[in-house]
Amino acid sequence: xxxxxxxxxxxxxxxxxxxxxxxxxxxxxxxxxxxxxxxxxxxxxxxxxxxxxxxxxxxxxxxxxxxxxxxxxxxxxxxxxxxxxxxxxxxxxxxxxxxxxxxxxxxxxxxxxxxxxxxxxxxxxxxxxxxxxxxxxxxxxxxxxxxxxxxxxxxxxxxxxxxxxxxxxxxxxxxxxxxxxxxxxxxxxxxxxxxxxxxxxxxxxxxxxxxxxxxxxxxxxxxxxxxxxxxxxxxxxxxxxxxxxxxxxxxxxxxxxxxxxxxxxxxxxxxxxxxxxxxxxxxxxxxxxxxxxxxxxxxxxxxxxxxxxxxxxxxxxxxxxxxxxxxxxxxxxxxxxxxxxxxxxxxxxxxxxxxxxxxx
Amino acid sequence: xxxxxxxxxxxxxxxxxxxxxxxxxxxxxxxxxxxxxxxxxxxxxxxxxxxxxxxxxxxxxxxxxxxxxxxxxxxxxxxxxxxxxxxxxxxxxxxxxxxxxxxxxxxxxxxxxxxxxxxxxxxxxxxxxxxxxxxxxxxxxxxxxxxxxxxxxxxxxxxxxxxxxxxxxxxxxxxxxxxxxxxxxxxxxxxxxxxxxxxxxxxxxxxxxxxxxxxxxxxxxxxxxxxxxxxxxxxxxxxxxxxxxxxxxxxxxxxxxxxxxxxxxxxxxxxxxxxxxxxxxxxxxxxxxxxxxxxxxxxxxxxxxxxxxxxxxxxxxxxxxxxxxxxxxxxxxxxxxxxxxxxxxxxxxxxxxxxxxxxx
Lengths: 360, 360
Ligand SMILES: CC(C)[C@H](C(=O)O)[C@@H](O)C(=O)O
Ligand SMILES: CC(C)[C@H](C(=O)O)[C@@H](O)C(=O)O
Prior knowledge:
The structure is a homodimer. Chain A is an alpha/beta fold. The first copy, chain A, folds into 2 domains: about 1-110 and about 275-360, Isopropylmalate Dehydrogenase (3-Layer(aba) Sandwich), CATH 3.40.718; about 125-260, Isopropylmalate Dehydrogenase (3-Layer(aba) Sandwich), CATH 3.40.718. Chain A has helices spanning about 15-30, 45-50, 55-65, 90-100, 125-130, 170-185, 200-215, 225-235, 245-260, 300-310, 315-330, 350-360; strands at about 1-10, 35-40, 70-75, 105-115, 135-140, 150-155, 160-170, 190-195, 220-225, 240-245, 270, 280, 335, 345. In chain A, strand 1, helix 1 and strand 2 (about 35-40) form a beta-alpha-beta unit.
């Protein structure tokens, strides 16, 4: 069986960490009987260098022809990166938003897991996180403020900027269904986060989510205001199973949740469309300050590859094996610098990749 | 000297905690030579009970005639409160938003302070908060998504909701000036938080803030994306002095910051207009579950009264004295239930008020 995987190495540490994920995919393929062929795709800084824009239509077409896309990281150092010569609105952010829209990647899954072995890095007190936590943020990714009309113009002589936030019931329904489906495979709880005491879009959100919930009688639904959710993630992250929310709230809350785990270098993410196609990437950034040094943590990207095998490529066993190998490597005491602690063995990017391969 | 103070007791624990703040104001008046006269104003549930709406024009007019307004808390138990019979968009949220707009309270100050005596309640590990932290959020309160046009209507047969986010340069400038002015009296650092990689309003925000910064060469300005700020508040709250941000981001971040302190019952807030007038209220909610039991923590409201004396009423010495009295009460080991810890003396709402009065 041959799987065609688009690869966006990206900027900063992107190329290094993606290389390790490909190594792990190849090893899993050997063991579980599939073959990966990789197609390199350019996005962000790498695309600007070659094409002058962060994303070309050709790249979009090529991505669509793949079974799934694995991505390193996009973005970079404000001072040295090529795209900072571009207008803000034409920067790789734009490439990222465009690819999300063009590939219709409306469902962004961001797990936030506290690994028992890594609780030393967690900023929260042990009494709060005892036993660990494991939540999944389901962020709507192709609507809301990110894709609304916007403009900046003079109104009565005063410069005025407008952004707009729109959601329709279809957009809300499809992401809600995804969240409930995932919850059914987890602890059967959905916390839908909105600002229904202020926003019309949140009131519609709440209404549609309640309709969808009727088809999932086993799942407990609760509504939470976004300001409260920002508090609860710090106060008691264990209370959450699946958090369902719109694009901008999801951006803020998923980053907060990832920091609450204390180990962003461990967190995968998936962006899915209506089919099985998805784009997979680590939650962390491109870390230009440590790029090229061979010290970046590849685990988030490797776990993203595991998500890809599970959600897009029908290779659940290989996905399980990769996740188990990552757990085993942690139990065996190997750490990259970002998650290093006393008594552990510090390893670089490539060695971490090898250690995980050995355990598959 | 006579000061005319509007009092909105509000819902839930509001009446209890405001009573203690009035007691403390009266004591401070005796010592520092001013006289408070109080005018009761109705907002939220209390106003719905009497007038059927959460805020009348008469209340607005009365509030404007006061030197400042002190408020308990608005909101309540979804099941029992009178306003839950109202349409969502007509609920007390609406009263709160309307009074902010009518009184032009564009500058919302929310301090987040970790008291050394209360670090047991802080959810963050001690190594992160050693030495405590003290940051001030300056949230824009009368613009953005909260006050944009909104509507819900069928578009091509699909129910669609719109909200809009608008800021003009004047709105941004006046709040930025407030933030820099406050920073000058503090540690001279402003972190302006936006989402300039996506929103036009954030790009204008950043531009205007940079212009304002030129008039404050002593103040260090940094820009931070909102998702990153949500992470940094958990990772290292000590890095912040003044956080300047727009309305919705400020709502989320100020609640997160208040939870990071671990003691919301201690946090005051002020909402100011162009003049010295302001509305002062605790950061926490109306806590309907403990209303009427005499156990709520009145300190946030008492500290709000201190902020009122400082910002609106030119009584800095009295404000200092109240803040010192609160610190002393904590040092002396008195605690309400929400901040109780081993070896301390647990007291109720009224006794806490008395203890603070004794120390003025
Ligand atoms: C780079 C930025 C536009 C992007 C977003 O806000 O979606 C990033 O923060 C993310 O969460 O993937
Ligand atoms: C009640 C609600 C409308 C309000 C807000 O969002 O501003 C509250 O959360 C606050 O922060 O004062």
